[in-house]
Please model this.
Amino acid sequence: MKKKGIFIAAVAFFVLAAVVISDFFYSHNTSADFLAMNTTVSLDVTGFHSKEAVERIKSEIIRLDEKLLSRTKHTAEIYSVNNGKTEISDELKGILEYLKQLEKDSGGAFCTGIAQLTDLWGIGTENKQLPDKEEISAAIKNHEKWQINDNNVILPENVKLDLGAVGKGTACDYAKDILSAHKCKEAVVAVGGSVLLYGSEKYQVGIRNPLGEVNEYCAIIEAAQGCISTSGNYERYFEDENGNRYHHIFDPSTGYPADSGLLSVTVIAESGTASDALSTACFVLGIEKSLALFEKYNADAVFITTDKEIITTFGEFESETITVTNNNYSLGDINE
Ligand code: AMP
Ligand code: MG
Model:
């Protein structure tokens, strides 16, 4: 009897010790902030191998930018493709094929071949301007006709690729793979407007007030792990002398900044590339025309309209919930 008591006590001790030790190891926390992809990246990782994971994520995001996706850095494949090279790596091929499909699914609202238009408007650069109608028409000619053929990209004359609408979400996907390879417990990875939530059951995320300052929120969503990306008309823009705002998300069918009654769109999806690309596409499409995309990509969204209504696709039994925190905004119904 006494032996049995000692045995139970010993087992309990080892179980307790294992819990304490594993908790100690798992609670290693490492953070880092750096610049990449023309934005701020911040990493906050918990896990025994958090230091290695953070180092790898940092070098992977920098590689993704400098070797693959940038259209301004001469070392990147996209830069080379835009300057005449046709052959691409398997890695870039995988990304471009996904985007080609998304272009089709969004009816052309998402458009990778938009670089000429982005450059013409120059929004967010010293060369910002309101271009002539003729220049705009020329810049949107054939932009959807670029093709991938095996490991070759074929660009029509005057068409160049711009992955500015997806790179940050793709970076979140790369980060997720590294976190899981290093068996990390929890992490928040923010790459500009795309944020990866990894590990916990629930996270609270503030949605920026599109009419307020950088750190001002107008709602808080509670979401499970996944990737959250926001596109808004406040990110990069200029105003003319009459106060008309020209922002950086273009409707490829007109060549002008999209005007679908929205101030911002936040998309929550498992894939970062999907959430980032969809937030841009849905900003162009507006609420109604976006709904089929959410079904196809298993995504959810929070729209903020120019009437200051906040409208979500969250169903009654879904895991996400929203709380409006600013009295200037009200919750609207997606069915109205
Ligand atoms: P985001 O902030 O993720 O919505 O991305 C906006 C950036 O994507 C812009 O600065 C452009 O470089 C590019 N872009 C603008 N309009 C589109 C569009 N309709 N489809 C794809 N990329 C776009
Ligand atoms: Mg985007």
Q: What stands out?
A: The first strand starts at residue 29 and ends at 36. The chain has a mean pLDDT of 92.
